[in-house]
């Protein structure tokens, strides 16, 4: 685990409604720190937004960790980058006086959010995982009681196998997380359904 927090390029938007937990926005492959800001504002008006850029570049496209092929992760790199991201979040919380954030991750960002849950239980208040898959072949055993997770998958997603998102849901449930899952008639891209479900789930936290 890293002792010092890495410097990650990021954007931070302070809360106008301090009662709501901050959102940790985690973009997909090829995105950056500005990508999910509009989505964050839409699903959680008034909340603080912390939005880092993934430090890995794949053919010029930012990601949060390396992969060997599509859907085949470099798990050593994933573990290291997950620990770096956890250290960054802790440092930002301390500097800015932030409560435990809720992660809102899409695709590659959802996958590192799942990894954050599994490697750093208690860091996140909850996580909305949009188009996530199981990040580890042999996931660590953790307890996630009290952690709320929203899992939105697409039944026509060409990138995320249904078995992988189902295995992630099962693992999180078996770990004690309160999991809300919807398989939407969609592909990998997001739609208004994702926005509405995420907004409703966040409002009920
Ligand atoms: C990943 O690499 O995290 C997933 O395949 C999703 C993607 O970024 O395409």
Walk me through this protein's architecture.
This protein has a single domain (10-203), classed as Rossmann fold (3-Layer(aba) Sandwich), CATH 3.40.50.1820. The longest helix has 22 residues, at 75-96. It starts with 9 loop residues before the first strand and ends with a helix. Helix 1 links the parallel strand 2 and strand 3. It has 205 residues and is α/β, with parallel strands linked by helices. Helix content is 32%, strand content 23%. The model has no long low-confidence stretch (mean pLDDT 96). The strands form three sheets. It has a seven-stranded mixed β-sheet with strand order 1-3-2-8-9-10-11, with helices on both faces. Strands 4-5 form a two-stranded antiparallel sheet. Strands 6-7 form a two-stranded antiparallel ribbon. The protein has helices at 37-43, 75-96, 108-119, 162-174, 192-203; strands at residues 10-13, 23-26, 49-52, 56-58, 61-63, 67-69, 72-73, 102-106, 126-130, 148-154, 178-184. It contains five helices and eleven strands. Bound molecules: D-malate. Residues 28-29, 67, 70-71, 107-108, 111, 159 line the site of D-malate (MLT).
